[in-house]
Amino acid sequence: MTTLVLHAANAGASPLHGFWQLRPRDGEGQGVKIPDPPPAPPPGLDKKVETLLAWGKWGVMVCGLAGLFICAGQMAIGRKNRSSFAADGATGVPWALGGLSLAATAAPIVAVFFQ
After folding, report:
1. Is the pLDDT of residue 7 over 70?
2. Do residues 78 and 60 touch, judged by C-beta distance below 8 A?
3. What CA–CA distance (Å, rounded) separates 60 from 103?
4. Which residue has the higher pLDDT, 4 or 95?
5. Long-range contact list for 27-30, CB < 8 A, 24+ apart?
6. Hey, which residues does 25 pair with through a beta bridge?
7. For residue 20, which phi and psi values (nearest 5 degrees)?
8. 83-113 vs 46-77: helix crossing angle, rounded to 10
9. 109 to each of 35, 47, 99, 100, how far by Cα in Å?
10. Of 11-15, 25-29, 37-41, which has the strongest mean pLDDT?
């Protein structure tokens, strides 16, 4: 099989050339309409999912606050004679803030793709 592929490549023909031409191009030319319904919650689950998302937001908020407290503690403890410990705390602050920022903007980011 490898020899056939190498001979075809040397001859300038791709063994998959015909295969790629047979693929439909986003429904064009075939008369096929691809359905694109708007997102809708399953019946009875909308309030339960909102509660689950609220718990997730609360958990991320608690973790972010704890992360910032841990970074502050590392920086305070490492102030004297432990500069690498303080540096680890300082490098953790952008990560904690980045996680909190992503959690705060997650819903608007997702909403952009479904408008």
Report:
1. no
2. no
3. 7
4. 95
5. none
6. 28
7. -70, -25
8. 160
9. 23, 21, 14, 14
10. 37-41
